[in-house]
Amino acid sequence: MNAYSTLKGVHDIFPPDVFIWNKIERTAKDLFYIFGYDEIKIPIIESTEIFTRSIGQSTDIVGKEMYTFTDKGGRGITLRPEGTASVARCYVENALYRCTPPQKYYYIGPMFRYERPQKGRLRQFYQIGAECFASSTPETDAEMLFMINEFFNKLQVPELRLEINSIGCKVCRPEYNAALTMFFSQASLCGDCKTRLVKNPLRILDCKVDRCVELRKGAPVITDFLCEPCKTHHEGLRELLKGRGIAFHDNPLIVRGLDYYTRTTFEVTTEHLGAQKAVAAGGRYDNLVEEFGGPATPAIGFAIGMERLAELMRLFDPYPNSPFFYFAALGEQASAIALSLAIRLMDKNISSICADWQIPLKGHMKRANKLNAKYVIMLGADEIQKGKATWKQMSNAAQGEIDVNNVGEFIALSEQWLTRQGSND
Ligand code: HAM
């Protein structure tokens, strides 16, 4: 391995992916703002205890995956493995509970987990997360899921699946845990699950080891153990989703890998990314603020995995930043005309590329093809004389002439293309 390379599980992000990333961020910021969320900037490093306390000692994140070190002052420091704990800490520390409820925040940034890297599973990855405090109603859960649905619709990400569950509360979960302990007590679980059986049997439902996946068939289902208030909450959410026409699937195995959750849990998954299916995930955490020393404050949130989402979008749109017009100018004079046209088009938000005029036509066509330009505009001495350029549509080789003095004709050409695209959808 070259000494000058990124660490295992850590990626650079560069074009064209960065184009998708920016689109994701812009879409999130615009949409979340409409839903009343403000951006919050939380530190990348925190006291280790922030995470051990909230995420839970028995979780994989705390047990195996945290980047933890002692700083020069002897303090235990951890690179954040997720954002919720920090936002809850910030909420309590800065008494944000005094603001008018509900208080809604979103954040975008890198997270760190020492996981075994594979496709879609990184050691440094980015999340866009959102947290809503001080509302306990199923309407708040439904509103959040509606916002997530809108977000993926705006990005035109197809074939996603929303899975929901309720993992109960302090009142009903102990009984469920007891039932799980009984169910698994004689089972030949993997080493980790043997520990989970003692510390937190719910975690067994999250285990990816084949043997444990097989063993949990027929295990008691949490929804049969919910207390009346949790049941009413969960049914309320299901009805609201149905009422809004948001498709969802009940999945009693969505118990999540973090201990702070109560009641609603959910994941948005895809079949297009291999083993790492979850593109977004979250749930309610009604006790966390109190555990950090704040007033009793219900809360719900979620986070989207940026790398997974960007990869998914790339699958459906491999050329996210392809230009509309590629000007293939042959000669210096043609190049000046092309530049002036391109500037006027860019002014109308129509992406245009002006290539070096010294390149032969064949080279231009190759480049335009690689860039996935929609049209090539060919401009040579003859064309300039006639005041006409030749356009060629790259997808079907259709071609025609266009008036180089009339930028409106170029705009009309781009509009025609967009109309055809729309009618193909
Ligand atoms: P999480 O399920 O651990 O939840 O992560 C949320 C999303 O981050 C996952 O669905 C996935 O898309 C992405 N992700 C997680 N780990 C990795 C990784 N190693 N590599 C690439 N992507 C990854 C949370 O982090 C909670 N804080 C979500 C939340 C917010 N719950 C309430 N509020």
From TrEMBL:
GO terms for molecular function: histidine-tRNA ligase activity. The keyword Cytoplasm applies. It is found in: Cytoplasm. Coiled coil: none annotated. It catalyses: tRNA(His) + L-histidine + ATP = L-histidyl-tRNA(His) + AMP + diphosphate + H(+). Its main location: cytoplasm. It is an enzyme of class 6 (ligase). Its EC number is 6.1.1.21. Pfam families: HGTP_anticodon, tRNA-synt_His. Residues 1-313 form the Aminoacyl-transfer RNA synthetases class-II family profile domain. Belongs to the class-II aminoacyl-tRNA synthetase family. Homodimer. This is Histidine--tRNA ligase. It comes from Candidatus Magnetominusculus xianensis. The lineage of its organism: Bacteria, Pseudomonadati, Nitrospirota, Nitrospiria, Nitrospirales. The gene is hisS.
